[in-house]
Amino acid sequence: MKKYLFLIIAIALGTFLRLWQLSAVPNGLTWDEAAIGYNAYSILKTGRDEHGAFMPLIFKSFGDYKPGAYIYFTVPAVAIFGLNEFAVRFPSALAGILAIFGVYLLVKELFSEKKLKPIRIFSIDINIWDFSAIALAVSPWHVHFGHGAWEVNVFSTVMVFAMYFFLRFIKNKSSIFPLISLVCLSLATYQAAKMLTPFIFLFLAIVYWRDFWHQTLPLLKPRKIVPLLPFILFALWILFGSIFSSAGNRLATLSVFNYKPGISEATRQIDGSTSPYISLFHNQTELSFHMVMSRYLYHFSPEVLFYEGSLFSERAHIPSLGVLHPLEIIWLVLGLIWLTRLFPNKQTIVILGLLLIAPIPASLTLAEFSTYRALFMVIPLSIISGIGMYYGIQKIKWFIAPVFLLYFIVSVYVFDIYFLHSQAVFAKEFNYGYKQAVEIIKENPTQRVIFTDVLGQPYIYYVFYTGYDPSTYQKNIDFIDGGLDVGRVGHVGNVEFHQFGNDELTHLKDTLLVGSEGNIDRSFDITGENVALFKQINTPDDKIIFRIVKTKP
Q1: Which is it for strands 66-67 and 58-59: parallel, antiparallel or unpaired?
Q2: Cβ(511)–Cβ(448) below 8 Å
Q3: Which residue in 498, 493, 521, 494 sits closest to 452, CA to CA?
Q4: Per-chain mean pLDDT for the chain
């Protein structure tokens, strides 16, 4: 039992941080979370998605074509917990907990051939893999993404176990089937997996090419390859479907290569509009390369990692902080020192290689920076941090005790911000107010409801929070295709989703209107003769989200 005590502590702490206040932090659901939940509910009740497609692997949803794995993981959660925030987020939280154990196994397998001396603390032997598990367990980046229905979080966990089984496969400790099953699952879990998964396993195959080919070549015989064909065909179907089918439209829209940056006027004035320097040094290839590299390198900046960066979306991190623990730089520096001393050992190459590969998909999108698409970075970073803890205790014992104490104190501060003080910031980012608006609609039945779509996709919150019958919805769906971008729904039953103004408020009868401050401005007389009810939904910091008016019959 003592042998696994530190792992048990890591998993217990990680479980607490990921499940505590799972429904309430963040204090609203994103559109994608609500869509995942309702499509899972629809599958549970009818076997079809919201558009009526039978058990699809890729869900049309808003027209963004979501990979289906997370939705299917949500089906049993909805069956057990009901259609609510906890059920939608539970698969991601569970994946986050499993990732702690996965990192433990991966690091242990990675260093299995090195005889590393464990550190003995209170008669307990603690190894590098124990420290890596605890580093991931308390990672603010990983905890935050465990508190939302983030497909990338499940993908990261799947990849950890896939890499673990890759190492076991090349060492002849496991068959190829766990590895190839997890690879296929990763492709069905997350859009960017179509790029990241092949990159990672191509990289691993190159690093371990002798062992890899020694184990793989026997499988190329006809008798051996036949059982693998279903997996290979499935992977190819997912990959080609993402490129050539309608599902590829969204990828094309988000790709940085779909945007053609122009040459600035300042550059033309310096070099001259007809100068050969313009075409030689400022051509389309150079401009696109500059865009990609600037995005890529930004992921490694101290601004991103340790304090609030200028390009951050408030949804993407703990407010006022970077993606990592403020003091994690200590462990990262010590871990990198330890790894460079091993170089060119394969362990160093693998860990640093994974870190360098992880931000590539995020760097190829139009968004300047995305902690969502770059989340896989947290895996190699946690491994390096665990190594730094191990090395620090081993080499500078007198210094480590106060550092760990300070690290604990700052951790309390970090999670105090997250669980108690972040809700004002998260309210707008996670669409706080939709749940409250739908409750008011349910409590005040009228002949007609008009719900503003100024914030995007209000219909999904209505069907989610009312538990709207999926079979009825599928028969009467009013989806308006958005072409290359996402579409919208015009109405569900008597609830319409579009813009309106003060004029409608004065002449419509027996109608409930849910609008922003722009739809129902402060000049509107809420005590007017046509007004039967007025309510306002504010964020925790008292900013207006919705203004609601019910007119008289």
Answers
A1: antiparallel
A2: yes
A3: 498
A4: 85
Report field, pTM of the whole predicted structure over 0.85: yes
- C-alpha to C-alpha distance for 162 and 168, rounded to whole angstroms: 10
Closest CA to 373 of 299, 426, 309, 310: 299
Pairs from 401-409 (Cβ < 8 Å, separation ≥ 24):
403/327, 403/330, 406/327, 407/325, 407/327, 407/330
380: left (phi over 0), alpha (psi -120 to 50) or beta: alpha
Q: pLDDT by residue (tens digit) across 459-516?
A: 999 999 999 999 999 999 988 887 556 788 889 999 999 998 877 787 888 999 998 8
Tokens of 5: 């005590």
H-helix or E-strand spanning residue 551: strand 544-551
What digits encode the pLDDT tens for the residues 398-453?
Answer: 777 788 889 889 999 999 999 988 888 888 888 899 999 999 999 998 999 999 98
**Predicted confidence band at 311 (pLDDT cuts at 50, 70, 90)?**
low
Closest CA to 372 of 118, 192, 119: 192
Give Cα 106 distance to the centre of its chain: 22
Q: Which residues have C-beta within 8 Å of that of residue 447, sequence separation ≥ 6?
A: 494, 509, 510, 511, 553
220 secondary structure, DSSP code? G
The yes-or-no verdict on residue 36 having pLDDT over 50 is yes
User: In angstroms, what is the C-alpha Rg of the chain?
Assistant: 26
Whether the Cβ atoms of residue 287 and residue 274 lie closer than 8 Å to each other: no
C-alpha to C-alpha distances, 140 to 154, 302, 386, nearest whole angstrom? 16, 15, 15
Taking the C-alpha atoms of residue 386 and residue 364, their distance in angstroms, rounded to an integer, is 30
CB-CB neighbours of 441 under 10 Å: 19
Q: Assign residue 421 a region: left if phi > 0, alpha if psi is -120 to 50, beta otherwise? A: alpha
> Phi then psi for 491, rounded to 5 degrees?
-160, 155
How does strand 448-451 pair with strand 495-497? Answer: parallel
Instruction: Count Cβ neighbours within 10 Å for each residue of 336-367 and write b for 16 or more, e otherwise.
Output: bebbeeeeeeebbbbbbbbbebbbbbbbbbee
pLDDT tens-place string over residues 188-205: 898 888 889 999 999 999
C-alpha 310/C-alpha 304 separation (Å) is 9
Q: Is the dihedral angle over the CA atoms 92, 94, 95, 96 positive or is it negative?
A: positive
Tell me how far apart the alpha carbons of residues 403 and 399 are, in angstroms, rounded to a whole number: 7
